């Protein structure tokens, strides 16, 4: 019987493979207080990691490039293209200029990336790690979770939520997007973004 490989990073030629410990998932609702506590612990641990990572503005730049590329987003109307470009630019500057401390972030700690396991709550899918204010991470979590996270700048959180909505809306208009029901969501989220920016 072959031995199981230990968790770690393995490099072979141009390939890098990471192996993780498997935990049997537990199906249960996650209380917002537990979610907020798990994210707070994750952030505390990530503050101790010195790792070269992208900045959150790099992800915004990717969305801006997509909006500007008519070939990749052929179904965007001119008005919606101008609206998305302006929203991404304005909110990128607002979040960047907030003056809040920045640190290593998960990047997308939404409920789909949080597992309930026998040893507690664990976050997965760290390929979106980036640097930025904690509010950028909290923008991906449910409202009630952010309400329980200590020291949040709620004005900045609102900007981050709107920025995140602008980015995911942009990705739904990519001609190569394979997100299920992506076109319908692109239309729906454009409408929601219009309401969010009108407040």
Automatic annotation (TrEMBL):
Matching Gene3D superfamilies: 3.90.1200.10
Molecular functions (GO terms): transferase activity
InterPro entries: Aminoglycoside_PTrfase, Kinase-like_dom_sf
Domain of life according to the entry: Bacteria
Domain Aminoglycoside phosphotransferase: 34-142
Protein name, per record: Phosphotransferase enzyme family protein
Keywords attached to this entry: Transferase
Keyword field contains Repeat: no
Keyword field contains Transferase: yes
């Amino acid at each position: 019987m072959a031995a199981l490989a230990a968790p770690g990073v393995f490099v072979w030629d141009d390939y890098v493979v990471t192996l993780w410990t498997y935990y049997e998932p537990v199906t249960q609702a996650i209380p917002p207080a537990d979610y907020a506590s798990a994210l707070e612990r994750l952030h505390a641990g990530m503050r101790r990691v010195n790792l070269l990572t992208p900045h959150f503005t790099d992800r915004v730049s990717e969305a801006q490039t997509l909006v500007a590329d008519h070939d990749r987003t052929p179904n965007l109307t001119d008005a919606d293209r101008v609206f998305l470009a302006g929203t991404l630019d304005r909110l990128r500057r607002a979040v960047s200029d907030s003056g809040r401390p920045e640190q290593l972030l998960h990047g997308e700690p939404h409920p789909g990336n949080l597992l309930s396991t026998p040893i507690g709550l664990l976050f997965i899918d760290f390929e979106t790690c980036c640097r930025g204010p904690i509010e950028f991470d909290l923008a991906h979590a449910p409202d009630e979770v952010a309400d329980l996270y200590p020291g949040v700048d709620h004005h900045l959180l609102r900007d981050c939520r709107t920025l995140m909505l602008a980015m995911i809306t942009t990705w739904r208009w990519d001609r190569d997007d394979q997100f299920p029901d992506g076109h319908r969501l692109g239309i729906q989220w454009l409408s929601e973004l219009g309401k969010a920016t009108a407040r």
